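Most newcomers find our protein records easier to grasp once they have seen one. To make this concrete, we reproduce a full record directly below:

…
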Amino acid sequence: MIKGVQIKKLKTIPDERGRLVEILRNDDDIFKNFGQAYITTNYPGVVKAWHMHNHQEDNVCCISGMIKLVLFDGREKSTSFGKLMELFIGNHNTLLIQIPKYIYHGWKCISQTESIVINIPDRPYNYANPDEVRLPFDTDKIPYDWEIQMK
């Protein structure tokens, strides 16, 4: 586990009309602030990585398909410095993952269909001065191989 990462198991409420899943409420223990909400998608096999924020915390939920979400703690003073964390989230594991600032993160679509991810960061995106530090998905700075691991 990486220090500061929080995981909320989401409850699905089905009925004859369909289903309802609450993702984040302002009375949740993990709620901090609302910045904005947006959707991003990945085609099968596509990796979107790596990035981190100096001020923003992300709240990530895959609402369709499946992704492999990977986190890396590059905070030198953290008790989990250098640790990696893999989470498989989406249709088969409905979770909300809160990612603290300074944690590099990215994901790969591992389903056979496009994945749809909702992010609810605690700050709005600043177009003039984006709060992002980006690295390529295959950087040597993060010891991670995005290929499937057959164990």
